[in-house]
Inverse folding.
């Protein structure tokens, strides 16, 4: 009996011991998602349930039970939240923003039971960030408060704790009437950091105060410092600490500010300034980026692939398959070498119908699979692949307008497809060299994608050579501007927009209507011209004759209106010279003839 | 057909039920805002512009010489975009050849006399017919080829339609229209309009047939 009792005692002791020394298994609370990005599905029937407002997510979490918390995806939420005892946690502190549009209170907690915890959010652009009263018991941790009239306002809420936050450029950082736990925060450029009616508050510890107009009443708390926290970049709201910041490990071994402690978000800022440059001699791509100053970043990860937008599953670089980890926060470039991308020679484009325009031709052709560019050739004489003309242009579309052409002249054209492999590159910053997923944990989201070509370009066969000629188009209906016009020429050439009629009209406007004699001639012509025009219209058989008769006038008009001034002067002088020489010869001949007679 | 005419006549007869309502006086002016489709009379329009008609919007202002007779003026606007003709290519291929882009705009200015079959201020349906002088202003541009062609052509137009008095559908709204804007009656109407406006030099008719609907306010 005694033995049994002893065994029971031992067993009980072992069980108690096991329950004490065994590692606690923390079961992650179920999450409700708040996501207003609109980029992914977000409905209450999703798993986990998703709502487009934070308040709806809070209400859903309350309905489901106390084990549920709210995860807020990055975005700007214009809401005035009422806390109801649940935990609200942003995925990325700097990119998960509660904004009030310049006024109002962003978060209100009015009782102890309707409190909760707020992690990893940015509060901006409102009168009050968080307003807690009537014994509210909030945990405010790892948040950023910027540009608020009052960041946190506490009334009769002594159980509320404010830890590891950044208060930047607010009117008042914290105003309270209790002795709250205010620790590990950074207060910078506020009018008043902490406003309290406590004469000697004891809970203000391990905070950094810098460039505030007034730090307020800090009491006898320990560990407070007054140094530049050296944020990475306040202008872009990057409140990570730079290497060498005195706030690093300053709060009993953890960093001060929004990115310190166990509840901080561990997703670095995206890498900026990414470029990719191809070295054609070595077939290598040098990827460069702006080095991040965040002291937590231990390196970068370079992703590459041949599909724009991913997946970045490239292979074949001498340095390894995608992604490649580049260790060292000060690194800012990496070279992918040995990229021997093979490209299939593209097929032959086929011309669609060309469109003649005034002094131009619109060309369009079929897209060729794999083609990255098209080379268009044109000439006034026919050609083939062995006698390509000098006039050519490379375009990345399947159409091109040849301009500056001469109406009525036939142009020959052809197109060939060009294919070249491209690599698409993105870079991430990483907090640790473990396998992580960009944008979710320990690794930033992908940077903006950049592209670089690789390998030799392959040009496909030349298309069939097409030909066409530009011409002056005629609108339907063929309307004319009112006022005097060339009646006879219009009748002879058939339509008002005919180039010959346009030439005569331009001559009239530039050389006749600008002087009184010319204007008088125009008036006379418009009085009598319609009679002749009516006769020509009534007798179409005469039109070729009239056209022929008008051609010298048309030629002279074209010469005067289309030829550059300098050329005109040269030609006129040439004619004058010939005329003078001819007259001189004729005069000399006459003289010598008379002399002979004498 | 006879039944329809009888029905229209019955609707045009003044409603006795409203005889005891206060007399507001008679409106002197009317203003129309209307829109619809305009089908040019030019036979090849569809070939160059892809469809037979184009949207037209217009407004008119008229003075009531008598309760049944109005004189007024109105301005409309139509715009269509299509393709031009390439005459040399047409000659070479022996068939119409279109290319490039053309924008043609028509702005009819109408001065008109209108007769309305109204015999009571409570009449639900009011038929009307009218006509007058038209000056059709035009603007035309071929993309990448010279400036805009501008001009006008004179002609005439006829129009007729049916107005539906909206006042009795919502009497409080009608009262508000009167108290706030001095609008006596508001009508919804449908009408057909036939216009002829020939360009003198080419005899091309820029007119056509329009089917329009809109709102008319009497004040």
């Amino acid at each position: 009996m005694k033995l049994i009792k002893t065994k029971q005692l031992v067993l009980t002791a072992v069980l108690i011991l096991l329950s004490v020394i065994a590692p606690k298994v923390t079961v992650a609370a179920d999450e409700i998602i708040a996501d207003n990005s609109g980029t992914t599905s977000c409905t209450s029937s999703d798993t986990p349930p998703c709502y487009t407002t934070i308040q709806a997510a809070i209400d859903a979490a309350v309905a489901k039970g106390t084990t549920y918390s709210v995860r807020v995806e990055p975005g700007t939420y214009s809401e005035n939240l009422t806390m109801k005892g649940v935990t609200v946690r942003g995925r990325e502190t700097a990119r998960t923003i509660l904004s009030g549009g310049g006024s109002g209170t962003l978060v209100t907690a009015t009782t102890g039971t309707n409190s909760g915890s707020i992690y990893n959010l940015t509060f901006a652009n409102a009168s009050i960030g968080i307003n807690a009263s009537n014994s509210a018991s909030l945990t405010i941790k790892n948040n950023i408060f910027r540009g608020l009239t009052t960041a946190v306002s506490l009334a009769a809420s002594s159980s509320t704790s404010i830890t590891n936050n950044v208060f930047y450029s607010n009117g008042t950082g914290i105003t309270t009437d209790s002795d709250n736990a205010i620790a590990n925060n950074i207060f910078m450029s506020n009018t008043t950091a902490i406003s309290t009616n406590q004469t000697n508050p004891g809970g203000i510890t391990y905070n950094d105060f810098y460039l505030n107009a007034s730090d307020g009443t800090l009491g006898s708390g320990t560990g407070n410092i007054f140094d530049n926290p050296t944020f990475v970049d306040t202008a872009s709201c990057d409140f990570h600490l730079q290497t060498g910041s005195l706030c690093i490990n300053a709060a009993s071994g953890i960093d001060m500010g929004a990115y310190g402690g166990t509840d901080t978000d561990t997703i670095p800022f995206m890498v900026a300034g990414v470029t990719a440059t191809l070295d054609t001699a070595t077939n290598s791509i040098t990827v460069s980026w702006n080095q991040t100053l965040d002291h937590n970043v231990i390196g970068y990860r370079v992703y590459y692939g041949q599909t724009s937008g991913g997946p970045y599953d490239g292979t074949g670089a001498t340095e390894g398959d995608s992604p490649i980890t580049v260790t060292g926060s000060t690194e800012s470039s990496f070279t992918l070498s040995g990229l021997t991308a093979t490209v299939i020679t593209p097929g032959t484009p086929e011309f669609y119908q060309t469109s003649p325009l005034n002094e131009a031709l619109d060309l369009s052709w079929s897209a060729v699979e794999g083609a990255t560019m098209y080379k268009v050739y044109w000439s006034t004489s026919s050609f083939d692949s062995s006698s390509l003309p000098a006039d050519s242009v490379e375009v990345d579309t399947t159409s091109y307008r040849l301009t500056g052409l001469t109406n009525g002249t036939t142009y020959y054209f052809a197109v060939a497809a060009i294919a070249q492999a491209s690599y698409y590159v993105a870079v991430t910053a990483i907090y640790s060299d473990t396998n992580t997923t960009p944008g979710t944990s320990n690794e930033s989201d992908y940077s903006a994608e950049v592209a670089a070509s690789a390998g030799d370009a392959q040009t496909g066969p030349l298309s069939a050579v097409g030909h066409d000629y530009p011409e002056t188009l005629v609108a339907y209906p063929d309307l004319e501007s009112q006022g005097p016009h060339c009646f006879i020429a219009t009748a002879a050439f058939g339509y008002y927009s005919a180039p010959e009629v346009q030439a005569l009209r331009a001559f009239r406007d530039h050389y006749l209507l600008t002087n009184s004699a010319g204007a008088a001639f125009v008036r006379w012509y418009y009085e009598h011209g319609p009679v002749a025009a009516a006769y020509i219209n009534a007798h179409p058989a005469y039109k070729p004759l009239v056209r022929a008769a008008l051609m010298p006038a048309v030629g002279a008009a074209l010469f005067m209106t289309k030829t550059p001034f300098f050329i005109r002067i040269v030609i006129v002088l040439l004619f004058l010279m010939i005329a003078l020489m001819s007259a001189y010869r004729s005069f000399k001949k006459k003289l010598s003839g008379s002399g002979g007679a004498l | 057909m006879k039944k329809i005419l009888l029905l229209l006549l019955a609707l045009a007869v003044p409603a006795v039920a409203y005889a005891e309502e206060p007399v507001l006086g008679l409106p002197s002016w009317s203003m129309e805002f209307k829109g619809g489709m305009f089908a040019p009379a030019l036979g090849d329009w569809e070939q160059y512009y892809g469809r037979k008609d184009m949207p037209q919007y217009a407004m008119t202002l008229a003075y009531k010489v008598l309760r049944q007779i109005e004189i007024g003026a109105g301005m409309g606007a139509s715009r269509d975009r299509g393709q031009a003709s390439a005459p040399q290519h047409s000659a070479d291929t022996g068939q119409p050849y279109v290319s490039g882009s053309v924008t043609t705009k028509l702005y009819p200015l109408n001065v008109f006399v209108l007769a309305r079959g109204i015999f009571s201020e409570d009449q639900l349906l009011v038929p009307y017919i009218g006509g007058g002088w038209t000056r059709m202003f035009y603007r035309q541009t071929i993309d990448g080829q010279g400036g805009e062609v501008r001009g006008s052509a004179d002609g005439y137009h006829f129009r007729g339609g049916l107005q539906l008095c909206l006042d009795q559908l919502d009497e409080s709204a009608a009262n508000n229209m009167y108290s706030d804007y001095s609008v006596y009656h508001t009508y919804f109407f449908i009408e057909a309009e036939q216009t002829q406006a020939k360009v003198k030099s080419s005899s091309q008719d820029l007119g056509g047939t329009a089917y329009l609907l809109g709102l008319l306010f009497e004040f």
Summary: Chain B touches chain A through 32 residues (CB under 8 Å).
